[in-house]
Amino acid sequence: MRSLTIDQAAGAFFTAFSLFVLWESRKIPFGFLAEPGPGAMPTLLAFTLLACSIGLVVGGRFGKRMSAIAWTEWRHALFILGTCAFMALALERLGYRLTIFVALIVLVAVLEKKSWIASVVFAACFSFASYYVFNALLQVPLPQGPLGL
Predict the structure, then answer these.
(1) Taking 80 as the threshold, does the pLDDT of residue 121 lie above it?
(2) Short-list 41, 48, 47, 50, CA closest to 14
(3) Alpha carbon 89 to chain centroid distance?
(4) b or e along 55-72 (b: 16 or more beta carbons within 10 Å of the residue's beta carbon)?
(5) Residue 144, phi then psi, degrees to nearest 5
(6) Does residue 148 come out as left (phi exceeding 0), alpha (psi in the -120 to 50 range) or beta?
(7) In this structure, are residues 49 and 14 in contact, taking their beta carbons and an 8 Å threshold?
């Protein structure tokens, strides 16, 4: 038997993830076609992801094999995963703007080795501009941390 391809492995992962989301979405009311409930969107997105994932598993048999991957970027991936964990844990405590600011500085200055000045400017502009778009324009409440940040 031939080894699994990268596409098939990704498809299998996202198939499992979409099934998990479908299982958890059953606890949220779906509503009706005329008046969808809060469970409608995650359920529809999970079904869409499921269909695409199954297509990737079936159609991805001609891609690069998993055994051919050198895994040279594992430290990079672990660093990004750690930053994501920090963001998940800090968002409510530090607020959206401060959390995104710190995470972007870490990712851009430390991980990508860009200049500190450019990293700080980029992180400040992105965190405050995205907060404005979501909070003021789209009226999506985002967490505010200490000092109203």
Answers:
(1) yes
(2) 50
(3) 15
(4) ebbeebeebeeeeeeeee
(5) -110, 135
(6) left
(7) yes
